Amino acid sequence: MTSTTTTEIRPFRIEVPQAALDDLADRLARARWGADLPGDDPWARGVPTSYLRGLAERWATAYDWRDHEARINELPQFTTEIDGQTVHFLHVRSPEPDALPLVLTHGWPGSFVEFLEVVGPLTDPRAHGGDPADAFHLVIPSIPGFGFSMPLSSPGWTPDRVAAAWVELMTRLGYERFGAQGGDYGAIISPAVGRLAPDRVVGVHVNAATGGFISFRPPSEEELAELTDLERSRVARLQRYMAEQMGYAQIQSTRPQTLGHGLTDSPVGQLAWIVEKFAEWTDDAAALPEDAVDVDHLLTNVTLYWLTGTAATSANMYYEVAHAGGWGGTVERSPVPTGVAAFSTDVAIRRHAEAANTITHWSDFDAGGHFAAMEAPELFVRDVRDFFRTVR
């Protein structure tokens, strides 16, 4: 890692100018709407116009960013510069002095907002009916190019580079021994943190895991026969994703800048781009995204993308990964104890995960989905506690 200009850690508060909120409301009021496409399944061709109009109306008239901004600002936030990049993070220390430091990493199209419901139970289990021995000091950074980790300082912010920044961040905070947890991109970055600092990382816990936890190669008939029914269902889900749901990834992996122009200029476009993933990746039992997550929690996440103008810079992570070898590359097997929480829409398969990770804990859930800390916070907290109890 190159040397930084400063190692100073600065307090941070979110203070969005009222003019930015007024501009958002004005753009939503003037949105230009297209017709719904014909077809029996209104979601098969993307987010239906009729649905999106209703959600945009709520965003414009019923949702109050100031309430959510105030709630976030109740949590200690900071920025620092690492490898030339501004890094924003929450740092919430537990009242329990022997708590284990834990760095939580979000993915796309998530943000640090994903973890708001689990901060209390993880940092202060005593106040939430849990065992104080399970307490964590939480560090929740925003990946460079996401949220307030802006502006993006340079190209090359791959998951490995982010992992190196996280190790440096934990060092600056005085944490010699710590755990790492993450979902989506966080499930790539967190194991990379363990590989970079195996003598310091006591354990890695992931959800919504793909690279390093699945096989992108279609299985042979012989391999399929060896899988359990649950594993075969995950293979089928992954194949459906590859065939029908990865257009966004192709665009973000090749032309994130072009995409960003449209999403940065249109809040309706940004809303649709994100809410589609909440429709497709949340628990199958949920008919609509708001049946899986609180609608205002979802809108807070979308509003963060809009207000920070990070459509292109967050998408850029896909470009960096694709042009640094792609998702399916081999990695050194991690010696760090690793736990996996596979929620109902996840595709991780243990026999594949064990090739690159030292799996010591595995949970399969029939509820929850890709955004587990938002969808099923109780299950998420329980599994994080259960795993790290074995490595503290």
What is the arithmetic mean of pLDDT? 96
Number of DSSP E strands = 9
Helix content range:
40-55%
**Main sheet properties:** 9 strands, mixed
DSSP summary: helix tally: 17
Shape: globular
- Approximately what portion of the residues adopt beta-strand conformation? 5-15%
Order of helices and strands: EHHHEEEHEHEHEHHHHHHHHEHEHH
Which residues form runs of ≥5 with pLDDT under 50?
Answer: none
Summing up helix and strand content along with how strands pair, one would put the structural category as alpha/beta
Radius of gyration: 20 Å
Walk across the major sheet and give the strand order: 1-2-3-5-4-6-7-8-9
Gap between N and C termini: 29 Å
Key attributes of the depicted protein:
392 residues, alpha/beta, nine-stranded mixed beta sheet, 17 helices, 9 strands, 44% helix
Layout of strands and helices, then pairs:
Layout: E1 9-12, H1 18-29, H2 49-61, H3 65-73, E2 77-82, E3 85-92, E4 100-105, H4 119-123, E5 136-141, H5 159-172, E6 178-183, H6 186-196, E7 201-207, H7 221-226, H8 229-245, H9 247-254, H10 256-265, H11 267-281, H12 289-292, H13 295-308, H14 311-322, E8 337-342, H15 350-353, E9 358-364, H16 372-375, H17 377-389
Parallel strand pairs: 4-5, 4-6, 6-7, 7-8, 8-9
Antiparallel strand pairs: 1-2, 2-3, 3-5
Structure in words:
There is one protein chain. This protein has a nine-stranded mixed beta sheet, with helices on both faces. It has helices spanning 18-29, 49-61, 65-73, 119-123, 159-172, 186-196, 221-226, 229-245, 247-254, 256-265, 267-281, 289-292, 295-308, 311-322, 350-353, 372-375, 377-389, and strands at 9-12, 77-82, 85-92, 100-105, 136-141, 178-183, 201-207, 337-342, 358-364. The longest helix has 17 residues, at 229-245. With 392 residues, the protein is of the alpha/beta class. Helix 4 (119-123) links the parallel strand 4 and strand 5 (136-141). The model has no long low-confidence stretch (mean pLDDT 96). 44% of the residues are buried. The chain is globular and about 55 Å long. It contains 17 helices and nine strands.
